[in-house]
Write a structure and sequence with these properties.
Largest sheet: 6 strands, antiparallel
Order of helices and strands: EEEEEEEHEEEEH
Radius of gyration: 31 Å
């Protein structure tokens, strides 16, 4: 059966159909961030659905980079729908990134208390996407070895001893200058 995942469709009692899904085909998590200041606002692990009519995605949770407006709004199109909302703001740039339905009519109850993020105000990054590049290791840099660390510590000790010696010599010179200025 390979390394894929198995899923079923149809009745669990009757003739079930099994389909193998390749690991590459399964959806990787996505991170949603503000288009203006690039702060992360949430991720697809809290996905609750989408509202294609309003071009919004619905999330159960968001990051601390999202704040709710202090006052609820009951105006405009939301008033016509019978909804009370609060505006979602990006903490980094104060941009409006979506809304939260506080009160809804019965047919919109599924949206209440969810974070409804405006797709036009957020960008996303899919973890493990093909546009990633592997960091190339520089041939000039090598891992820190014990010998290298010991060498650096020895050099630091020498610099420290030199700084102490210079400090002592500076103190002696200052004392000599003060002695000469008192004698004058």
């Amino acid at each position: 059966m390979g390394d894929g995942y198995m899923s079923t469709s149809g009745s669990a009692v009757g003739d079930a159909t099994y389909t193998l899904v390749d690991a590459e085909e399964s959806e990787a998590p996505a991170v949603f961030f503000c288009t203006k200041c690039r702060l992360p606002l949430g991720d697809s692990l809290s996905w609750a659905g989408s509202d294609e009519e309003r071009n919004h995605i619905l999330l159960r949770t968001v990051s601390n980079n999202v704040s709710l407006s202090k006052d609820p709004v009951f105006a405009g199109e939301y008033r016509k729908m019978g909804c009370v909302i609060r505006v979602l703001l990006c903490v980094g740039c104060s941009s409006q990134v979506g809304i939260m339905y506080v009160s809804t009519p019965m047919e919109l109850d599924h949206r209440r208390s969810l974070y409804s993020m405006d797709v036009g105000k957020i960008d996303s990054y899919v973890v493990g996407s093909s546009s990633q590049q592997r960091a190339m290791r520089s041939s000039e840099k090598s891992p820190v070895t014990i010998e290298y660390r010991d060498s650096v510590q020895q050099q630091l000790s020498e610099v420290k001893a030199l700084a102490v010696a210079i400090g002592q010599r500076l103190s002696e010179i200052e004392n000599e200058l003060q002695t000469k200025s008192v004698q004058l």
